[in-house]
Amino acid sequence: MKLSRVLPIAGLAAVGATVANAETITVATVNNNDMVVMQSLTDAFEQSHPDIKLDWVVLEENVLRQRLTTDIATGGGQFDVMTIGTYEVPIWAERGWLTPLDNLPEDYQVDDLLKSVRDGLSHDDTLQALPFYAESSMMYYRQDLFDDAGITMPDQPTWQQVREWAGKLHDADQEQYGICLRGKPGWGENMALVSTMVNSFGGRWFDMDWQPQIDSPAWQEAVSFYVDLLSDFGPPGASSNGFNENLALFSRGNCAMWVDATSAAGKLFDADQSSVADKLGFAPAPVAKTPKGSHWLWSWALAVPASSDSKDAARQFITWATSKDYISLVGEREGWTSVPPGTRTSTYENPSYQQSAPFAGFVLDAIQGADPTDSTLEPSPYTGVQFVGIPEFQSIGTQVGQMVAAALTGETSVEQALQASQRATERTMQRAGYLD
Amino acid sequence: MTTAKHSSVPSTSAAPLERSALTSALLNRRLWLGVLGWILALVIFFPIFWMIVTGFKTEAEAIADPSLIFSPTLENYAEVQSRAGYAKFALNSVVVAFGSTLLALLIAIPAAYSMAFLPTKRTKGTLLWMLSTKMLPPVGVLVPIYLLFRDTGLLDTRTGLVIVYTLMNLPIVVWMLYTFFKDMPKDILEAGRMDGAGTLQEVIYLLLPLTLPGIASTGLLAVILSWNEAFWSLNLTSSQAAPLTAYIASFSSPEGLFWAKLSAASTMAIAPIVIFGWLTQKQMVRGLTFGAVK
Q1: In this complex, which of B83, B146, B249 lies closest to A76 when CB atoms are compared?
Q2: What is the ipTM of this complex?
Q3: Which of A124, A204, B254, B276 has a 20 to 30 A CA-CA distance from A276?
Q4: pLDDT by residue (tens digit) across B3-23?
Q5: d(CA A69, nearest CA chain B) in Å
């Protein structure tokens, strides 16, 4: 056989051997924009780490949560990297389901990660997951409508002011609604917003003895305010609006104000997606009695489950995807508004980011100002601003969310909804052994 | 249909005037029935039509007020294809749907044969008991099945999904075949036996050819049920054996706009089964009305 024929075959065999030796890791993630970008950069990772190959499982948030919980609770070992939120991390870490991430390489610069985000992902002072992006909540408003009505936005708006402005700017005939807020039931949907309102109205989910406080005057006041505000000046059918629906409404110019996740800012500022990109104003989330817990803190983080067979490779991937270099890579390839926000101080010090994301300062302040360990006026035994870091909260939050949505549609009164929520939560807490 | 047949028989005794009045009344009736049929079909098909249309819109158009006037784009299809390889998911769907259907038929034909032709006191009870397994919400047995699959190494394998889908469809397949077999005159089988046919020959040469439309429509139903099944496929697979249902699920998102992309992915996911169903619709209708009029 001629050498010229043998060489390509040998070359192919060598390539085959490299691919065959590569360790494949399965990454489970949600289908949010930032994760889609991460998936599209697979080639960049595989080039810099030729011995690791990535397989992706992308699912909708709720489906993913159920899928991952089943796998991790049974030690199924189907995934090497899991995308989980601030809610899961401490609960899963406590059960020993996650691989602690100590001794991270020096060039990873752990101290560059924002402290509040780092704290939310730690258990026993050890990081259990690395933050991919983080968000808080803030208020978006239509600068043009505010100017026309002669309203000036103060540095820190209050809910009472929001109600007055909503009344002035509401014009249902023109499909211009005073305010858009989440109404779709779910612990991560309407209850994320309602919990921050309750915090700010001086309420809390539980007292120090884990006794539910949902029938307290603070809850009554906060939920009544929310229901009245949204019924009087909100869009029709508000009880079925979640983040996406409100994003669509606001970007089409139907809302004068919207209080929601900071991650919406990039989308609203993108003229391709939003017709109000040049009329957008932003402000901190409104407060009532106290600024404590008035805006939430959430981060999507990458963790390595204890059941993974490829922990080293998985760790290499998550340190890459949450590194400073990754953020620069996204900035260069996709533009600086597309970089995953809220995780590193260096991102906010970067002049390119500051220039292309005028909302950056607000987001940073909101994230740094959120303290999951101290988010209520009166002391509470739990961590989490818009959630309670106990396994039972998913069902409690969703159940209360459904009752609040029922009050919003007028099916029940706020008082009835809160009393029913209180009873249901008491039962759950009794069954779980928190109460006698 | 019967009335239509009668109308085509020329009636020599009726006067020409009467005949034309009768024909126009019948034509009128057929027209109305036709219009009603079309309206019903359009109502049923409308969501699918809208999904296909949305797949060709931009994300901004997809969430805007519904409109049929837009400039069609293929960008969603390009995006969907670049994010996840369609072919791998489609192949998994084909293998799993047809594999499980074949396996289910292989098990169900002998079972239905014995129940239809050699019934015992307990046959009815057994049939009902089989059907009762369909009444349990699947999530109730998720953890036991997940653990079984973990220990047998069946997680994220096509074999695993084929087994689950076979078990899932078996009660329906047995029930349908049982009713088809029961409608077959026993005399034919007896005649075969007189001619010296054994059980296997009886099944292969008499029962199967005579009930083929029924078996075909049962098989088609099982294929469609397996193709559309989402609970088990999402929970038992991750990257290797994931079928098209998992492919669709990966385009839904709680954050950001995704309707156009989701519609494009769904259109691609249903295309093979719709084409397959269209090609085999004759068998399906024949099977479903098989034995309806004796």
Answers
A1: B146
A2: 0.75
A3: B254
A4: 444 444 444 555 666 677 778
A5: 11
